[in-house]
Amino acid sequence: MKCKLLLAFLLLPMVAMAQMVKSPDGRIVLKFSLSDTGQPTYELTYKNKAVIKPSHLGLELAKDKHASKGLKETDLMDGFKISDTKTSTFDETWTPVWGQYKKIRNHYNELEVDLNQPSSDRNIIIRFRVYNDGMGLRYEFPQQKSLNYFIIKEEHTQFAMAGDHTAWWLPGDYDSQEQETQESKLSEIRSRFHDAVDWANSSSSVFSPTGVQTSLQMKTKDGLYINLHEAACVDYATMHLNLDDKNMVFESWLTPDATGMKGYMQTPCKTPWRTVMVSDDARDMLASSLILNLNEPCKLKDTSWIHPTKYCGVWWEMIVGKSSWNYTDEYPSIKLDQIDWNKVKPNGRHAANTEHVKKYIDFAAANGLQEVLVEGWNVGWEDWANMWKWDVFDFVTPYPDFDIKYLNEYAHSKGVKLMMHHETSSSVINYERHLDKAFQLMDKYGYDAVKGGYVGDIIPRGDHHYSQAMNNHYLYVVKEAAKHHIMVNAHEATRPTGLCRTYPNLIGNESARGTEYEAFGGSRPDHTVVLPFTRLQGGPMDYTPGIFETQLKNWSNNTSYVHTTLVGQLALYLVMWGPIQMAADLPENYAKFMDAFQFIKDVPADWDESKYLEAEPGDYITVARKGKGTNNWFVAGKCDENGHKSTIKFDFLEKGRKYEATIYADASDADYEKNPKAYKITKKIVKKGDVLKLTEARGGGFAISLFAK
Hints:
Elements: H1 2-17, E1 19-22, E2 28-34, E3 40-46, E4 49-56, E5 59-62, E6 81-94, E7 104-117, E8 122-131, E9 134-141, E10 149-155, E11 158-160, E12 166-169, E13 182-185, H2 189-196, E14 211-213, E15 216-219, E16 225-231, E17 239-244, E18 249-254, E19 263-266, E20 269-270, E21 273-279, H3 282-287, H4 290-293, E22 309-314, H5 316-320, H6 354-366, E23 371-374, H7 404-413, E24 417-423, H8 428-445, E25 449-453, H9 468-483, E26 487-491, E27 506-509, H10 566-575, E28 580-582, H11 587-590, H12 594-602, E29 607-616, E30 620-627, E31 633-639, E32 644-649, E33 658-666, E34 679-687, E35 691-696, E36 701-708
Parallel strand pairs: 22-23, 22-28, 23-24, 24-25, 25-26, 26-27
Antiparallel strand pairs: 1-2, 2-3, 3-4, 5-10, 6-7, 7-8, 8-9, 9-20, 9-21, 10-19, 11-18, 12-13, 12-15, 14-17, 15-16, 16-21, 17-18, 29-30, 30-31, 31-36, 32-35, 33-34, 33-36
Helix pairs in contact: 6-7, 8-9
């Protein structure tokens, strides 16, 4: 009897260390404990199914070169004791400035675990927030005498998978997300990694043959959908995931700086949230607001100047190769202050010239588009990319054939604005040096939105697009832009992590393989039914859809073709949602299909409600959205190369109200390769409870406008 009591007493400390918190609906359960070596450990289940098996947490620190000689840095990996735990519940409903929903509920149960490492007398907090659709965890470092400045060598946050899941993944890369998504078992990632990278055209640093990027979408054999990502990445490096494919364990791998270090911290501070979404319904992955909810509320006092925008511009014709960004071909190597541009011979292909831009302004004004993007308007494009060049652009000096004052006055007279373009060529110090004058120029002429670009290798040399310093730069630009009431749409920047909630003037990012690649050989038809499960989890993408003349050889010397049907392009305005949407094709190409272009004119870029009707990663997505401040609904479906038979149940419509439906569908013989521009438009009256069945062609889709009567 005494032996049994003694054994029970010895087991008490381990039992006391186990903590548990459930989601508000009780379906998700998170357990936290310390291992026998004092290492933080957690696990996660959904409806009693394992999602994350016991996984370790911790950080490995680097010795500061300024520290006392011979002093070894103490890692924050193990040797911890629990000093306190707190649980709480939070429930609010907040109003986004723009987005998929008019209102978003932020409801979670929280577990705070306060840890002390006796050997170093250092304290950290691990905070868990558990929602009905997943959880977030982060490390917090209170200000303390024994932990003030520290350097992160590695972060060791683990995600132990419960099986060899199917995954939709991108190869780990510190500088680009512009690869095509791969679909494979976790165990196959290593063998397929090399084929997933375009080595011939990639100058970026791929870090590991078993590393992948987030957001990572997976599906288990028993039908669970699991997504790994991060939220609120501020003053921290972007996270990748290294896979131990023998044990099916992912571990965080942060983007390094030029010295190889992963982060420079000063307490009090915290890491981004590491997130896990889970459901047995793929539609829940797309409908989730978990990433946004884990970000801080809006920090802008006045958001009245932020507005969803549809735009066109002189971009696609340059991407395809018909026109050029550069004004002249005479100077393959230039310095901005050494050329008299009025004496330079133009090449005759420069798209950003006054008369040509006027045509786009007229097109925008005639078709209800708010803005016109003009790339290549400013001097420097003759010698701009991949040269490690510090002084690339000054962002204020136009080419001789671009009358910035006249064009802005002309645009405003038509009720249209020009959208600014700032390509930095990744010379970020140069951009920051010119930023204030560049924004002042925008103020002077009434620009309220800027498309930024970060093509090429980062200067300072050796840094990466997703490092801590670069993430700080991107956010700095967004904050400075807000002071001037300027909206930001950055391309080639880090992937979003929900910061558009905190700074809603961040209206878009690229950060993935966009439509431009359709001019470089194309993207698979399943590309746009994967991205909403992965890239769009952190925020909307400026995908630049709307290409109607899918056979580029019909109007240029480019032999590529767009890997969707024409109607499939219409579907992207809902499937690839966002408050900034481009009608990317040329006005003369739209002129041939103005009946189909009507959908682009009608579809909003902001929503009160969104209902995902059908979804399967890489196969198909069907979504219905209600226009902001209206009773009008829009429905769209997009599919992969196999086609899809869609059943649309109009259960979401208002009871007792009729709607005039205009249905843009693939023709019976449509095919993204053989007959991409075959479509049919029909009209009918629908009401709540009606059912419509549509067949989506290979690489096709459909779009429906529903105007309330």
